[in-house]
Every structure is written in structure tokens, then in C-alpha cells.
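Regression test case RT-17, inverse folding.

Input:
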């Protein structure tokens, strides 16, 4: 009897079931606003236009004007954990902020605010009119405790998490 079982059919059936479960889970995450529908397979991507995530970095004492920064190291640090903020409610890890300060050494010691925003669409009362607005999705506030240690607060999806990080000795030693 075991000779008649075709293992390939069972593997294909198992993969099909896993794929259907992933689609359902993706749609659930999108419906609850936890992920960007255009990421992680994009099964809900055509439910809304692409949200065009933006990151603005501001000095803590000048929240009216964004500063020009290099985010290359910051984006590389989040590439495998949360690329392009696919998981909207996930906190930004300390490693990403450390990579940011390694790329932007002149900002070490400056209190900063990272502001994430994305474009969202709203229906006005007449169902034919759709309005696009840029909406704040989260912030990270960085406050320096001393010349080497900073505290940061992630605020995403109504949740706040505070943690501290310390610059590595190799980076701290090269500062002017």
C-alpha cells in the first residue's frame, strides 16, 4: 500500500495549503493595519494605492525644518528585519539607530526626532471623491544621556517603547 502513495502530490497539496494560509494571514494583517499591503507578497496590494512611506529627521529643538541626513546605513540595518517598514507597528531596533549615527557622526549628541509618514486615501461623503492625505504613522525620539549613550522612544500604532543604546567604542574613539 505504501508503494502506491505519490509523495509529490502530498508535497504539492501541502504547499498549496500553506500558500492559502499565508494569503489569509496577509489579508488579516492588512485589515488590522499592521503591515503595508504592498509588502510581504502583496496579496492585498490593489486594495489601496501604494502608500509612499517617508522618513523625515528633525532636530529636537527645531521641529519645523527637516535636516538632510544619510540614511544608507540605517536602511541597511533594517533590510532584513523590517525593510521599508513593511511591519508598520514594529519598533526600530537600536542597531538601526547606531548605524544611522555611524553615517551621520555630526549629529551625535543632538536630540532628534524621526518622523514616519505615509500617504493614505480617505473617501469623502460623496463616494466618487477620494482624498489623499499624508498621515503620521510613527515617531522615534532620541535623547542623549551623555556623549556616548542615548535613550530612544519608538511610537508606532499607539504603542510606546523606550530603550537605551551606547555607541560602540570604535565609533566613539573616532569622534572629534
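Golden output:
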Amino acid at each position: 500500500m505504501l508503494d502506491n502513495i505519490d509523495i509529490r502530490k502530498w508535497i504539492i497539496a501541502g504547499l498549496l495549503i500553506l500558500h492559502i494560509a499565508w494569503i489569509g494571514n496577509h489579508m488579516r494583517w492588512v485589515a488590522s493595519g499592521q503591515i503595508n499591503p504592498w509588502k510581504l507578497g502583496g496579496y492585498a496590494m490593489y486594495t489601496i494605492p501604494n502608500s509612499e512611506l517617508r522618513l523625515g529627521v528633525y532636530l529636537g529643538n527645531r521641529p519645523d525644518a527637516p535636516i538632510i541626513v544619510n540614511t544608507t546605513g540605517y536602511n541597511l540595518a533594517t533590510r532584513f528585519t523590517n525593510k521599508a517598514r513593511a511591519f508598520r507597528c514594529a519598533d526600530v531596533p537600536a542597531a538601526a539607530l547606531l548605524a544611522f549615527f555611524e553615517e551621520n557622526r555630526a549629529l551625535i549628541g543632538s536630540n532628534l526626532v524621526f518622523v514616519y509618514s505615509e500617504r493614505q486615501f480617505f473617501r469623502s461623503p460623496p463616494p466618487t471623491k477620494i482624498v489623499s492625505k499624508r498621515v503620521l504613522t510613527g515617531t522615534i525620539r532620541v535623547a542623549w544621556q551623555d556623549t556616548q549613550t542615548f535613550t530612544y522612544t519608538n511610537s508606532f500604532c499607539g504603542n510606546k517603547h523606550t530603550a537605551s543604546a551606547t555607541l560602540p567604542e570604535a565609533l566613539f574613539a573616532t569622534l572629534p
